Amino acid sequence: MNSKADLHQTEWEIRQETSWFHWQLTGIWTFRHLLIRLVRRDLLIHHQQTILGPLWIIFQPLIILFIYVLIFDQAVGLSTDGLPPALFYLSGIILWTLYSECFTGTAFTFIQNGTLFAKVYFPRLIIPLSVVLLNYIRFGVQFLLFLILLLFLRPQVLATQPVLVIVSLLLSSVVTAGLGLGMGMMFSIMTAKYRDLVNVIHLIVRLLMFATPIIYPLSAVGPEVRKWIMLNPLSSMFEFFRVGFLGQGTVSALQIVYSVACMLIVVVAGSMMFNKFSNKLQDVI
């Protein structure tokens, strides 16, 4: 028979109160298997009943790359800082895809998972983390495509500065994904209450793309306009990625620190909002 002490022992205590700083790190680690299952589920759902299946992860950036080269290089003649257009555009495409997918996927957390939240309890941060992990896996596959093209066109860069290559890859991808995660968590609270913000998010993504050096280098932009573009913390990450892998880019150490600081602020602020309001949105959903 169980003693009174055993009866009063509880493994989980679910409270109605919410806190800005209730990170639930222990709960996230306990539900790590659920995190992996959610990533696997989303990966399968996105590629089920498709002709190419997971190959779309590779073909999608290739199709965009073909269009960019055809329009911006061949038709318009935009500068690529003397770099091969295919490498220049592909470096921007894979980083932008990582950011935009992390942002939009996280921003629609409550809209897409309202039914799941109503049925079972688990730390709500599991869903945004699964979105980032899924898109990081996709980024890894697309990065391998970029690396193959780089080894074919400019293999000497990797041999001359291997440390810079590794640092630029890790820092650029982590900061880019972190900005998408933080902004997505902020907007997820608002989209749960106001569904018309879904259209606003898609508009923000489109406009922000032109304020990020994806199809143009910062060196081709005038000093006055460049100051405004550098307010976008993504800009220095795109340039730093190109410095590491292509040997050219317009970025300073101060700009990199600024981007990292913005990412940390956005992630902390976004997670605080998510912690505070996520449990109060069930009735709204």
Can you summarize this structure?
This protein has 285 residues and is mainly α. It has 13 helices and no strands. Helix 5 runs antiparallel to helix 12.
Give the topology, please.
Blueprint: H1 4-8, H2 25-30, H3 32-47, H4 56-75, H5 85-107, H6 109-119, H7 126-153, H8 156-160, H9 162-193, H10 197-210, H11 223-229, H12 233-246, H13 253-277
Helix pairs in contact: 3-7, 4-5, 5-7, 5-9, 5-10, 5-12, 7-9, 9-12, 9-13, 12-13
Average of per-residue pLDDT values: 84
Overall number of domains = 1
Specify the helix fraction band. over 70%
The succession of helices and strands, N to C, reads HHHHHHHHHHHHH
The biggest sheet, with number of strands, parallel, antiparallel or mixed sense and barrel status, is: none
Strand residue percentage? under 5%
Classify the secondary structure makeup into a structural class. Answer: mainly alpha
Distance separating the two termini: 43 Å
Number of helices: 13
Radius of gyration: 21 Å
Instruction: Please tally the β strands and state the result.
Output: 0
Spans of at least 5 consecutive residues whose pLDDT stays below 50 are: 3-8
Q: Based on Cα principal axes, name the global outline.
A: globular
